């Protein structure tokens, strides 16, 4: 979703523009949320940004949490018609909400078939000139883990396959995972491995001070930057609050509101 000016989320995602190069291809963004602060609004933000009228970019969206109508309803309020973009092949919606959980295949075959669907969507959208960026989005990784009976190793293998597409085709990869579904207080290997692959990690968390009517939570954006030869930047961490409204999300620093 859009944010109020200044756009703190976009600033945090951009990092050091002097080192970012002309494109933002090949980036891996990991979103971690919890029950109190659902991170779905961040996926909506990335969808709308990728499908901007000024670009020809493509989104390959793997949906395991919600049907197409859910995303279409929300994005329409944001001024983005997913039906139109689906018809024009800019929004490739892979509805796995029921298909992947029917238990009809082995875990390995099910994940392989899932990856092949994504790969097919990427290959169909790829241009040899590299004139368009392709973003793979997964909502959400925890549903894949549930579908494979908690086998995080299988999920990691699947994510590594998706990661290879970022180097082979210059795709971006955006994933959503629920960090608080795990019983242990220590981070599970799946989340640690996803963070290791990520260029940007975005965490949504409730306020430490408790509930507030005009603040829905806080964001932590860890941007590891990029490297070009001998030039590199250190990871930058930004923290700010957010409020989800009907058609926008407002981002602001703590204490900046009267």
Helix-strand blueprint:
Blueprint: H1 8-14, E1 28-33, H2 40-50, E2 58-63, H3 68-77, H4 82-87, E3 91-95, H5 107-125, E4 134-139, H6 141-147, H7 152-168, E5 172-178, H8 189-197, E6 200-205, E7 217-223, E8 227-228, E9 231-232, E10 236-244, E11 249-252
Parallel strand pairs: 1-5, 1-6, 2-3, 2-4, 4-5
Antiparallel strand pairs: 6-7, 7-10, 8-9, 10-11
Helix pairs in contact: 5-7, 7-8
Structural account:
- This protein has 258 residues and is α/β, with parallel strands linked by helices.
- The chain has a domain at 24-199: Rossmann fold (3-Layer(aba) Sandwich).
- It is 33% helix and 23% strand.
- The chain has helices at residues 8-14, 40-50, 68-77, 82-87, 107-125, 141-147, 152-168, 189-197, and strands spanning 28-33, 58-63, 91-95, 134-139, 172-178, 200-205, 217-223, 227-228, 231-232, 236-244, 249-252.
- It has a 9-stranded mixed β-sheet, with helices on both faces. A two-stranded antiparallel ribbon has the order 8-9.
- Strand 10 (236-244) and strand 11 form a beta hairpin.
């Amino acid at each position: 979703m859009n944010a109020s000016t200044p756009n703190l989320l976009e600033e945090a995602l951009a990092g050091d523009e002097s080192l970012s190069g002309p494109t933002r291809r090949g980036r891996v963004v990991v979103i971690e949320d919890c029950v109190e602060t659902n991170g779905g609004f961040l996926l909506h933000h990335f969808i709308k940004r990728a499908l901007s009228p000024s670009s020809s970019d493509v989104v390959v969206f793997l949906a395991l949490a919600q049907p197409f109508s859910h995303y279409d309803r929300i994005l329409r309020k944001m001024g983005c018609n997913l039906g139109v973009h689906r018809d024009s092949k800019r929004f490739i919606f892979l509805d796995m909400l029921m298909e992947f959980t029917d238990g009809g295949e082995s875990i390995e075959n099910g994940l392989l078939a899932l990856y092949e669907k994504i790969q097919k969507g990427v290959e169909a959208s790829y241009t040899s000139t590299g004139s368009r960026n392709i973003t793979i989005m997964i909502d959400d990784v925890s549903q894949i883990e549930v579908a494979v009976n908690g086998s995080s190793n299988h999920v990691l293998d699947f994510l590594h396959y998706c990661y290879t597409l970022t180097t082979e085709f210059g795709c971006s990869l955006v994933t959503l995972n629920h960090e608080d579904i795990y019983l242990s207080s220590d981070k599970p290997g799946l989340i640690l491995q996803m963070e290791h692959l990520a260029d940007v990690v975005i965490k949504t968390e409730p306020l430490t001070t408790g509930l507030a009517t005009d603040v829905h939570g806080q964001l932590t954006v860890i941007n590891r930057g990029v490297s070009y030869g001998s030039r590199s930047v250190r990871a930058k961490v930004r923290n700010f609050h957010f409020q989800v409204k009907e058609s926008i999300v407002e981002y602001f620093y703590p204490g900046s509101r009267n």
